[in-house]
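Let us work through a complete example step by step.
Step 1: write down the sequence.
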Amino acid sequence: MTIERNSLIINYCIQENNLTVVTELFLLGFQIRESLRNPLFCLLLVVFCGTICSNILITTLVSTTKSLQAPMYFFISQLSISDILVITNIVPNLLQILLNNGGSIVFIDCFTQLYFFCAPEVFECFLLAVMSYDRYVAICNPLRFSTIMTIALCVILSVICWMLGFSFALIYIIKMAKLNFCGPNIIDHLFCDIVPLLDLSCSDTFIVHLEIYVMVIPIVIIPTIIIVLSSIYIISAVLKIKSSVSRQKAFSTCSSHLTVVSIFYWTMFGVYVFPTKGRTLTMSKILSLLYTVFTPFINPIIYSLRNQDIWKAILKHAAW
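Step 2: predict the structure and record it as tokens.
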């Protein structure tokens, strides 16, 4: 295996300006036995197909069903689009790597994969904050909800979230594209991610790391503050409701969203924020797998299983 890796390094590098410039990368994926690779391949394929079908179903239902023409469902459909982008960007290449026990990827494809991975994830950070604000207005200011959360405002907020997602991701890509990669070209990971690429660079990455940490403030910290404050106000308002039936209904409208927010942020923090000291590469890969593959699979399940309006729309279309 060591000889093969060394030969890959030699074959995938060229000499330019007295530097060995890497032109291709080799993703190792899961280095496991074939008896385990095949079941894992089947599992990921099933999850991939299930994610695509369920998110397309939600998007279609929201766009064609009058009873789902509400801000909450509009934002859920935008979340579904984001999940589709993430999983279609990661899983097909991951399945190929898994079958071949590794696979090469040229730099332009690697940075393209990184871009279309970062953009939807950054978008989701902002979208979850917008969805929290939507739930806050619905529960804390129900009489003014229809005048505040208009369709026009929802579209504008969604467009802003998409623009911020693709803009911040573009900043990441531009900064990383300026780095030199002149050392080993082997990434012991499942896909092209920020940290593994920075580890391969032979340039000084201090400024890049610093800029990434600075951009965490608008991307992660500010949306998190909005979500936490909205949740506090929502819980406070719900607890003041005297009717147990109304209280339960109010909690049910927010519990699905809070569950999605918790899964998204805990998995993201587990991969990028929490200390990695003592964590094995296999554990890092598993966390990344949960973050990129299983979270988009779980989101539509959470929103649909506990939502009577979506179930009614599904049954209505099935009856046709």
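Step 3: interpret the result. The beta strands are 13-16, 19-22, 24-27, 103-106, 186-187.
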